């Protein structure tokens, strides 16, 4: 009876972890995308359930201690014994339980729930989830049988036999990373075809629009994978949803692609950020999934390593191209291909890029260089421009 009472809280917490709505939590999609496991293991339900419990333990099952209670806990600790507090970590002893906080700020203290534990996942676990309780003899017998079956199957594969017993569970899964790689690789090839000078003009313009459409679809799919869809289709729910995604890099590039794909003006210079984005995604996927391939090590390893080690350079190049496109659109207003609405919308997008955290640092550095070059010339040769420039700056920083 005592064992059942001790196991009841664990069982209830496992049920709560299994019933949690992971699909509508954007943190779960980001957490799962950063777990590097073989594709055949990622398709197994027991592996997914294990990482869901770890996610639930890390992000959901926490206790929030406000500052006034934290001070009383510190007083309790001083009565219980000595305690070292350093770098925001401490050990709180209360009622015989030990609590190890994840971090401490001036506002609150977050601690993990000591009553919820996640068992370590065995590397020899089968494709079916194991029962949490049961006789030890039964579990040992089942593990021995699984080990023997795996040894026999591996021996069969090593001997070179070609017997097939059904569909292969380790076949290629079209998960989110694979879909993104396929789309971005296609975008990279089409964009290179669009900017290649010897390609006919008609084909080049089609490739230009296809590359923008492909990037827009890739960004929209990424936003949907990470943030899902709005919880409701009313104005308040849509406002909350767009406030959460508007400052993300994928949403910014989605608007960027829509701005140029709907315009009659064909600016090949707009493909520079598209090429940099596609190149980063392709190189990252190749390094993570094809590092053991001889073809990759022979031809693609050095370019992929260079791309991943120079992502900052590619981001700065993209920022220069994006700001340069804004000035090109202003110049195009004096031609027969002018589009006032597109120019205004693109400068609104540049303003968003300047303030969004994911692109702010790169755009700030580019605008600082432009200011250092242009301001002395305006002060010396065109002082009458100070008034319109100051008005534009007020709108920009608003």
UniProtKB/TrEMBL annotation:
This protein's name: Transmembrane protein 33
Pfam families, per database record: TMEM33_Pom33
GO cellular component: endoplasmic reticulum; membrane
Region annotation (Disordered) ranges: 120-171
Record organism: Morella rubra (Chinese bayberry)
GO term, biological process aspect, one: membrane organization
Membrane topology: Multi-pass membrane protein
InterPro entries hit by this protein: PER33/POM33_regulator, TMEM33/Pom33
Biased composition (Low complexity): 122-171
Family: Belongs to the PER33/POM33 family.
Compartment annotation: Membrane
Superkingdom of this protein's organism: Eukaryota
Transmembrane spans: 181-200, 207-227, 251-279
Keywords assigned: Membrane, Transmembrane, Transmembrane helix
């Amino acid at each position: 009876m005592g064992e059942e009472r001790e196991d009841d809280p664990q069982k209830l917490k496992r049920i709560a972890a299994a019933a949690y709505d992971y699909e509508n939590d954007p943190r779960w999609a980001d957490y799962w995308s950063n777990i590097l496991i073989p594709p055949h293991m990622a398709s197994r339900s027991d592996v997914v359930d294990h990482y869901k419990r770890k996610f639930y333990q890390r992000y959901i099952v926490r206790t929030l201690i406000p500052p006034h209670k934290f001070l009383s806990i510190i007083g309790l600790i001083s009565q219980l014994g000595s305690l070292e507090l350093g770098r925001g970590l401490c050990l709180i002893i209360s009622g015989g339980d030990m609590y190890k906080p994840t971090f401490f700020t001036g506002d609150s203290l977050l601690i993990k729930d000591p009553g919820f534990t996640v068992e370590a996942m065995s590397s020899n676990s089968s494709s079916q989830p194991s029962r949490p309780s049961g006789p030890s003899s039964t579990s040992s017998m089942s593990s021995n049988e699984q080990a023997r079956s795996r040894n026999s199957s591996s021996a069969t594969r090593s001997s070179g036999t070609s017997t097939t017993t059904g569909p292969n569970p380790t076949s290629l899964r079209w998960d989110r990373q694979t879909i993104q790689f396929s789309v971005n690789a296609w975008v990279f090839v089409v964009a290179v075809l669009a900017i290649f000078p010897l390609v006919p003009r008609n084909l080049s313009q089609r490739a230009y629009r296809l590359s923008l459409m492909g990037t827009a679809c890739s960004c929209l799919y990424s936003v949907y994978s990470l943030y899902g869809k709005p919880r409701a289709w009313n104005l308040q729910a849509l406002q909350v949803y767009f406030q959460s995604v508007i400052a993300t890099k994928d949403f910014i590039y989605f608007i960027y692609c829509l701005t140029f794909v709907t315009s009659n003006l064909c600016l090949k210079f707009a493909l520079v950020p598209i090429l940099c984005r596609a190149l980063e995604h392709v190189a990252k996927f190749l390094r993570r999934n094809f590092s053991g391939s001889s073809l990759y090590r022979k031809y693609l390893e050095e370019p992929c390593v260079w791309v991943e080690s120079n992502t900052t350079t590619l981001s700065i190049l993209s920022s220069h191209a994006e700001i340069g496109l804004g000035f090109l659109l202003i110049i195009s207003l004096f031609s027969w291909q002018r589009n006032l609405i597109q120019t205004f919308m693109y400068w609104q997008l540049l303003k968003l890029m300047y303030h969004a955290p994911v692109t702010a640092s790169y755009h700030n550095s580019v605008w600082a260089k432009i200011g250092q070059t242009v301001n002395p010339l305006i002060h010396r040769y065109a002082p009458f421009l100070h008034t319109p420039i100051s008005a534009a700056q007020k709108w920009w920083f608003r």
